[in-house]
Amino acid sequence: MPDIKDRPEDINSQQDLLLFYLGSNQAFGINVLKMKEIIPYESLTQLPGAHPAVVGVARLRGHPLPVIDLSAAIGMHPIGANSDLSPYSIIISEFSRMLQGFLVSKVDRIISLEWKDILPPPAASGRASYITGVIQVDGRLVEILDVERVMHSVSPQDAPADHGLDLDPALMEQLSNKLVMLVDDSSLARKQISKTLDLIGLNYISATDGKDALDKLHELQEEGRSVDLIISDIEMPEVDGYSLTREIRKDESLSSVYILLHTSLSGSVSDENTQASGADAALAKFMTEELAAAVVKGLTSGK
């Protein structure tokens, strides 16, 4: 029986990162899987009452597209306040079932990297809460943005309802002895998922990325314990969700664990990718009712 602790070092998958600037010499990055396209800046329609970081609305093939001054959203000097925005670009991004544009001063290039090369963000950074990690590229430090947190700060999502979900009391009692592991490198996502699990009345443990999850699963094994269901993000440093799933499936003692991939990358939610990794299901973030239903389904699937 393979031991999680003896996992190979090559399970980290390669990712592509778009590098760009926000009016300074500091380089930023965003996963290209979150991108749809890049368009030149165009005149925007003002949106009364919008968040200060929302600089207006563009028209993308006839459809309205909110455009966010990414610099202002993370607490830097607003680049949208400049008089001439014509040299700027708009990064069109789709995730968490939303389409939006990010105003940036310059798009640099796309690089390929290994998640294991990403380091934690410096604690001294004033914008650290918007950074998921940093990486050295050509001798300079690139800050990788937590776009989910950026979007939440501009347009907060509603919290799960306080009155709870409409679940049968007998079912909730049946699930009360189940243990769930949630895996996500975004503190915001972990908080949202935790609230949903609290509403169901489930016991759970959290992991900050795939590597942390594998370490904690190994600790549980040594204690003679196991989890019944794993909710995992896909895009994570160290070990991504697909690699985490494949590695778990190598361990016979974990073969029955139900794995739900939960991602902001809307385009990644496909049966083909899910089945190829060995996961049981995939769900786009973030709807409380849908997540709760998927968790209940997984815990009662009979695996």
UniProtKB/TrEMBL annotation:
InterPro entries: Chemotax_regulator_CheV, CheW-like_dom_sf, CheW-lke_dom, CheY-like_superfamily, Sig_transdc_resp-reg_receiver. Residues 14-156 form the CheW-like domain. The keyword Plastid does not apply. Its EC number is 2.7.3.-. SUPFAM superfamilies: CheW-like, CheY-like. Residues 179-300 form the Response regulatory domain. One of its GO terms (molecular function) is transferase activity. Keywords: Transferase. GO terms for biological process: chemotaxis; phosphorelay signal transduction system. This is Chemotaxis protein CheV.
